[in-house]
Amino acid sequence: MSAAPKHDIFQAIADPTRRKILRLLADKKLPVTAISKHFPMSRTAVSKHLRILLESKLVSVEKSGREKLYKLQPEALLELKHWLSFFEQFWDNKISMLKHFVENEEAGNLNLIIPKSNEESKDS
Amino acid sequence: MSAAPKHDIFQAIADPTRRKILRLLADKKLPVTAISKHFPMSRTAVSKHLRILLESKLVSVEKSGREKLYKLQPEALLELKHWLSFFEQFWDNKISMLKHFVENEEAGNLNLIIPKSNEESKDS
DNA sequence: TTGACACGAAACCAAAAGGTTTCATATACT
DNA sequence: AGTATATGAAACCTTTTGGTTTCGTGTCAA
């Protein structure tokens, strides 16, 4: 036994409930009971979703007294990001190309200058 | 009728077969039979996967004689990208923050200077 | 030490997902 | 005209998924 993940990240985020859980955990660590307040289903059901998120490393858990605090582990989304980056190459917009470059250089030799925007940015 | 999607993009990419199909279509338009050559399952099964990809707008189809050519529609992945960008905010690396900025400014007031890299980038 | 709370495991169930085979239809080839 | 190719629809089957309820265990508070 060991790291055979059983649930990959793509499966993990396929379910809307699980995506919403991830959003909730972005704010702060939460125990199961608190999380399940946000859903029209039993605590046990939410618990099962959390197990899947755990298996795919999207959350971690930490015991605190009689509670178990679940915490977002956003780094796990890197795999998804990487997968996406392959396709960005095909959608023909300069910004995406820039980002693709940044992705692959991974914090290499890149200078960035962000001007202090004293002008309101008009969208479009 | 109409755009009630039934299959969202998250579900669509949850299946490994469908992800592989997307990769194949990145190279070029292909008919079902050609695609199914790459998989240990029936053409009909692949056809069903394609229907799901169609429903989520990840591919489009174009009739050509007796064939139907399936084509990648990478823009559909924007939704995924957008979803991801929310979480990048939480993963603490400067590059990701940069990309988050780029994302939200949408080609706004940003100066980028990419030096001609005469030095090999050592991955740390 | 007794009771209340927080939690996951187990057994169960209905519906959805992912396959199969068979069949009908449209197009192309000769 | 007649045969071969390309495809999707239909009916069917099995496994997985997402939910339920019930129960046992650990922890905290009196």
TrEMBL record, chains A, B:
PROSITE patterns recorded: HTH_ARSR_2 (PS50987)
Keywords from the named record: DNA-binding, Transcription, Transcription regulation
Record carries keyword DNA-binding: yes
An example molecular function term from Gene Ontology annotations: DNA binding
InterPro entries: ArsR-like_HTH, HTH_ArsR_DNA-bd_dom, HTH_MetalResp_TranReg, WH-like_DNA-bd_sf, WH_DNA-bd_sf
Domain HTH arsR-type: 1-98
Name of the molecule in the record: DNA-binding transcriptional ArsR family regulator
Organism taxonomic ancestry: Bacteria, Bacillati, Bacillota, Bacilli, Bacillales
